[in-house]
């Protein structure tokens, strides 16, 4: 999520000794400013215990409650423990109850917790109220823009970013996301690189937050097909913050796309050891199958089912489960139900794309056609979106559209997916042969 980066950079932390994660392979050298890390995460629980004790002594202190909420939210980002998210919400609400005026920071925290729980409309309402109380706040405007993008309201996000154009790393990250989604990938990469460099300029910025910017830079490099650069950015993120599940997920995706299955398995396993996300479990199962471990892949797939059920109860990771089911041709009616539920509550580009591919897998081609057209309406330079649109267009007899989309997918990233990249090449070859025969 973008939102935690906007606010948590300024919260107090404590210094502690460094920690490490067993590397997948030797880490690349990184710049001196990146090597100086402030490992506040190692004392997060100690910091939280301190604030909890302070709140018990002064339960009516809106400031202490706000500081405690910020620490809970930061620990959630570091550990993915949803209970910390709920604790942060409760503390932020109490702070606002005690001090409803002049407490925009607590409102920002509350909206951030709601957004992380995918309670988008509630988050937007809180953020809108915070903007009314603090109309010049760039942080609140950036948060509102982030929420609007999650809801698919890209024009509203653009207006917020243009109205509050003061540069800071948090706003830069939100602007980069907007540029990425609306087809300006090169500009998005420039924006995130600037924000990342600004974050790295101060080693006292929290390690996890700094690492997040490197992960985003890696994600955008992958989208652009610059796989070596993407790997480098993910490795930098791990050097800054070793327990970085997002960086390990990025590496697992990258290695799977390149059919580097042993490395994909290692990265996925390290991520799973931290947090058993559906994405990393999926990469693990794919790697196990590719390496001939059918029994291991079946066991991992069973675990995906368990994690998926728990996630659905929390309502946070539904989309990843729908993607996995669809790509692997299993539980397709359930995948479609999940995708439809996502669009109903969160009609962004990727919700539409998930619905399009799930609908296609279930044979609902009219629904797939409509959703895929919505998913690519801003020209998003994402090879997977372009591939999905191309294959759906082909089924609908739109051969020129299909050829254009598949070519664009491969131009963006020739290794965008372990299976679909090869399928795109094969389909284009078939279309070319068919065209030659009809001449």
Descriptive overview:
By secondary structure, this protein is an all-alpha fold. 74% of the residues lie in helices and 0% in strands. It has 24 helices and no strands. The chain is globular.
Shape: globular
What can be said about the biggest beta sheet? none
Q: Name the beta content range.
A: under 5%
Number of helices: 24
**What is the strand tally?**
0
What is the residue-mean pLDDT, rounded to a whole number? 91
- SSE arrangement, N to C: HHHHHHHHHHHHHHHHHHHHHHHH
**Fraction of residues in helix:** over 70%
Separation of the first and last Cα atoms: 51 Å
Q: Which runs of at least 5 residues are low in confidence (pLDDT < 50)?
A: 3-7, 9-23, 26-34
Structural class from helices and strands? Answer: mainly alpha
Features:
0% strand, 24 helices, disordered N terminus, 439 residues, mainly alpha
SSE map:
Blueprint: H1 3-7, H2 32-35, H3 44-57, H4 62-79, H5 82-98, H6 104-116, H7 120-133, H8 138-150, H9 154-163, H10 169-181, H11 185-200, H12 207-223, H13 227-240, H14 245-257, H15 261-274, H16 278-290, H17 294-314, H18 318-328, H19 332-345, H20 349-361, H21 365-375, H22 383-395, H23 399-412, H24 420-437
Helix pairs in contact: 3-4, 4-5, 4-6, 5-6, 6-7, 6-8, 7-8, 8-9, 8-10, 9-10, 10-11, 11-12, 12-13, 12-14, 13-14, 14-15, 14-16, 15-16, 16-17, 18-19, 18-20, 19-20, 20-21, 20-22, 21-22, 22-23, 23-24
